Amino acid sequence: MKLCALQWIIALAFAGASLAHNVGAQVLDRELSISLSEVPFEEALQRIQDLTHVKFFYSPAQLAGEDLVTMQVDGWTLGEVLEALLRPRGIEYRVHEKEATITLRKVVVNEGGSLQEGQSGAVRRRRVLVEVTGTVTDRSGQPMAGVNVVVKGTMIGTSTDVMGKYSINARVGDILIFSFIGYATVELTVGEAAVMNVTLKEDIRSLEEVTINAGYYATTKATQTGSIAKLSFEEIEQQPVSNPLAALQARVAGLEIVQQNGIPGSSFRVRIRGINSISNGNDPLYIIDGVPFFSTSLSGASTSGQLHLDGYSPFNSINPSDIESIEVLKDADATAIYGSRGANGVILITTKKGRKGTPKASLNAYTGFGRISRKMGLLKTDDYLKMRREAFENDGAIPNTGNAPDLMLWDSLRYTDWQDVLIGETARTNDIQLSISGGGDEITFLMGAGYHRETTVFPGDHSDQRLSAHVNLSSNSHNGKLRTSTSIDYSSGITDLLQLDLTTYALTLPPNAPELYDSNGNLNWESGSFLNPLSHLEKSYDAVASHLMANSSITYSISPSLTLKSSFGFTNVTRDEIATTPLSAYDPSIRQYIKSELRLSNSWFRNWVVEPQINWARDVGNSRFEALVGATFLDQKTESFAQLGRGFSSDALIKDIKAASEHIVLESSFTDYRYSALFARIYYAWKDKYLINVTGRRDGSSRFGPGRQFATLGAVGAAWIFSKEGFVSRGVPFVSFGKIRASYGLTGNDQLTDYEYLDTYTSSGTYQGTTALTPVRLSNPEFGWETNRKFEVGLELKFLDDRLAIETAYYANTSSNQLVGFPLPPSAGFLSVQGNLAATVRNTGWESSVEITSIKTNNFLWSTFINLTVPRNKLVSFPNLEVSPEYRNRLVVGEPLSIRKQYHFTGVDPTTGIYQFEDVDGNGSLNGSDRQSIVFTGRDFYGGINNMFHFRGFELGFLVEFVRQGGIRYRTSFAPGLKGNQASSVMSRWVSEGDITDTQRFTTTLGTAFSAYDRSASSDRILTDASFIRLKNVHLSYTVPERFVDKVSIYSAQVFVQGQNLATVTSYDGMDPETQGYVLPPLKVISAGIRLTF
Amino acid sequence: MKSMVSIRVPKKIILFIGLISVSLISCENFIEIPLPRSDLTRSTVFSNGETAQAALFDIYYRMSQAGFVSGTQIGVSFLTALSSDELVNYDLTTYSGQFEQFYQNAITQNSALVELLWSDPYTYIYRANAILESIANSEGITDDVKRQLEGEAKFVRAFSHFYLVNLFGDIPLVLTSDYRINAKLPRASVDEVYLQIVSDLKAAQALLPDDYEFSNYERTRPNRLAATALLARVYLYLGDWANCEIESTKLLEQASVVSLSEDLSEVFLKNSNEAIWQIGSDYDNPPTLMFTIPSPGGLPPSSALSPGLIQEFEVGDMRKDIWTGAVTNGVDTFYYAAKYKAAGSEEIKEYYVVLRLAEQYLIRAEARARLDNVPGAIADLDVVRGRAGLPLIADTNPSISAEDLLTLIEKERRVELFTEWGHRWFDLKRTGRIDAVLDPIKSDWQPADALYPIPEIQLLNSGGIMTQNPGY
What is the per-residue pLDDT across B320-331, written as a single tens digit (0 to 9) for each? Predict the structure, then answer.
């Protein structure tokens, strides 16, 4: 007692001194992160002393009865920690700056409300109900609205009001949990001084807290047993892209995404962990807010087939700004609950939900400029004409106006860089998004609208536009038992593009080809000797699309551990396309033979899904049990209708099919797909250390014949968080987190055309006014599921307070019972019949991702994210491959699926100047059996490196994509020497006897050189290294300090600059190593914009 | 704590699992979907005459689209005209120069065009066989309709086999729709194939009517005349002159149904007097005839009539004026076949003529010349020459020898039937004159080029049973 009094006096004296010198702040500013779970008060003080190197003085007797301490904070100052720890307990403190000591003294509130000297009263205080109040602020001291405050272990909860204030009834000794999305959760013990002010800090990728959507249930990054990668909206909005799939490129290990071309609306090829199926679908299953997304394009082949070879991407209807997160489910543990549809992995897209708080609006707008990222080196006029003349000379042929208008009729002095003219424009992108979100305890809402417009690099005025709206409404009953969430997304797309990608013309039009316009400004046809590429601008391709997705879920908690849930989803997608080919697109001299054409395509997709589900979860001692059982009912219908109108009396009437003199229905199809399933999950965790997860599904699909519709699929996953073992935390304290996980299971693939098992006829057209019925297929009712066995083992490690995180996984997936169209000789009347093949395909690989926080201070943060995938694909077995008609020339057991069997190119014969190939069987002629050279066109490894820098308000990030792969080199379909431009590298051709080169002589007539060139397409000469390193994304943003924006009542303001595909390093000789071929490559886009919240 | 778990909770869970299971089991037939609205099962199709006929019409419908039986650049007329001496090719880039391959008689076995020439007729044969098998077991179709369908199906099967055997030599003879059998068929000899063709055509003759009443007087379905006309051609190709004369005579005696069109510009009109069988067109003035006019790619046209063919027209031959056209780029003139002219017009004026009577006069002329009936042969030849405005052999050279007359008949066939249905290509082959005619004008002519290669896909997909033609 005496000692205490003395200390108190000394403390007061020093306190005065320190206040006088105004340096007391220094000790209290020391930062610490601490995680305490029910530890004695004195031990808590000891931990704080150790972390901050301060010394506490207090009377042990006075503080002996304090409650156990639970506290979990990250990056708080000592002052904040002491406020949170001591104030609720009625303990005052004084700081002695010089000695870095702090004295503590207990002051309690008695019934009379006056302050008294502390006395040991722990027993009396226990379980007293108090009303705790306080204010929650963020790091800058701004009050935070909508923060959840819950009494741990109960359903008692509230949230903060607009001023950040809350009030809750709790017992002394209870633990309050303060949480808010994007902020680190804080847990504090309730003392009897009923004011608890809390500061929440932004959560910088705290692994422990990242919730992962696993579809039917949620897990966390730390406790997940499966392999699920997550991309959050922050990363999506850093990229000026209109298609959400584009935002995933290079960011997720094991996910291979290839853009098909650079035209607005282009599709993406997505593969999760390689190709599983030899001939059927290898696309992942896409689920948006619980509703399966129809990822097949609704574009009509007759209207847009020449522009978008795989159709206009349906994902372009999804506004990336509406997305909260994208989860990629990779292994059996994660995908088996999707059963027969999970073989190729699952991509879950979650849209944004409303947030509690006073309604805030945010505005996001940017404008961008896009150009082709690379140009090809092509022949200039001199070399081009030289090539042509040499070709005629080589062949002993004589050029005439029929076979060589470029030599005989056209100006030999003209030169045009057709890449500049035809694909050299600047594409403009404009994007604006507005959303309002807010709400209270019972209702939250989000309303958003967006507009996106993109133009092209082609000449002429073309654009692709999207208008979208997103609404979410969530409710929570007063007792917290009944919760609902409803989201509606609508988007309307307006496409006005060309019917054709002009890149082919840009690359192959002779450099001395004539003017495109004559002196009167009309299209020039050069006396009919030339097909003017701008004639394609006369043709139109317009589309109007609508996309409606609605889903809602109702959750009812019967008890704290038992929850019933049912979700309902509905999607309605339409796409209406019009393509016109007026007479003005033709040379006037032949218009009399031509009919103008109108092509209409109307497609429609609708599905609904109902998924009732029951969840049960319970903590019992150190054990946590979770279970769920649910069912799925899915119905999906598509319909498409395509028409052709021909012969319009005037181009002006061409969009009115009634004005056509002929009217033909090109397509009228209808499909129905139904699917039902029962699924279940059981999860058990002991001390969050040993985790086991079992999932399963019984599926039925209408795509299979009677008796083959049902299958049972399932998986088991387990994890051990060994860093929670005492021997690890003591033995290797620098390991802050460590987990080993493994999973094994069976999934299926039902991606095949509907009705394949039926022997049916359908109408093909009319003959003489009467319907014609055509057999749809050769039918085989006997085929069943394709199965995929997945195995994975993974290791997750974090070091040095999570500054370094490493995750690595090995997977082995085996697909068997392959569904293939068995190829038939054409003399059978059809080219294939559907069946199961006992072939096995195995995908194995390593995936690693590393996160490094190199620098982390108050002001500066540098973090690096690296992902690397090393995939291997192998055809393990294929019974009787050597007699399998189609596949013996495509596949080799022991080799990947992405190979080609080619002739072996042995060089250019120095005597004849012609390509030579190896005659493997030595029979004197080249035929199928000589195609023994195996050419790999897949990826050896790929990944991305993303660096992020935060400095005060600045954020800078750049993402580099790297891919090592084999590819197909640039090669025109016609031999060098024929009419049409070539890559400038062809000038290294063979000229005269004895020349050693790898390019054969020029030729212009059918002969050995001509056919040797043709054969080279089937040889390993076409293989090239298509590896590349690409600066995929750069973004720089600056958040304007609040003191500036506050004055104009804006919560936050940010300006940003973003770049996409800015630079590519590659040795690939064609236009682009990603797209290869003749298509327009992905554009280089630079954009700038603002984000405002007010 | 374990007991807590096992006693308190499961009741609810079991209840719910039970509920879901029950609902799922009761919905087991949830995944039973109805037939697509647009589809009928095979047994429904052949349960009545209307739909069974629709299955037959699918063959003609396919023929009327771009394919083997069409006037497009992938049809048999165009491709064989390139291979023979009728056309000059200027298109070296489409299909990687495959037109040039036909023109230079250097076709590769992986050619997509040759694959089409091969597989398209087999799709007709599959459909014909499916019809023949299905109507045999059908109870809902009347005997009259059965006879009609059987006759037409057999005609189509014979027609398809005829083109296959002439283009490719020995071929699989497909007489069933069962793919398990068809996938393993070896090549049948030319003789075997012809035996089947003759048998099918004779059956068709017996089953089909003489006129076009059954087809609403449209000449768009084969009748007995069509079977007879094709049979006459088959006997011509087989060198069975006697039967050849008999069959063509049967046809030439049907003047009330078919007769030569007086006016050359009327020959190819729809339901022209001269037409024996035409491929009808519901919507189109045949897009199928595009190769006969300059293609939209501009000049030079992708192909033009060969100077040799143009020279064959005698002075005053009206066919040169009426059946050919010309375009110029200012320096050179290119001729094109203009037998069909209505491609740009709004009204359907023309059908694609497969079999016409002029051929039958020339067939009988040749048969008669072979049988040493020179005056009879001259009479038939003069019918065709007279219509073209040319002097009659009966006037200018009545004492011509049979051998010289045969030369004149060959020339007459060339200028009458140019760019139609492979006549020139097949004439050169069956008369054995192909090497003599083509070797001088084709840069690298080989006798083996007279047969097209069996497409690679057939070789690959038949598990080694199929063999390639020599020289490929």
Answer: 999 998 887 777
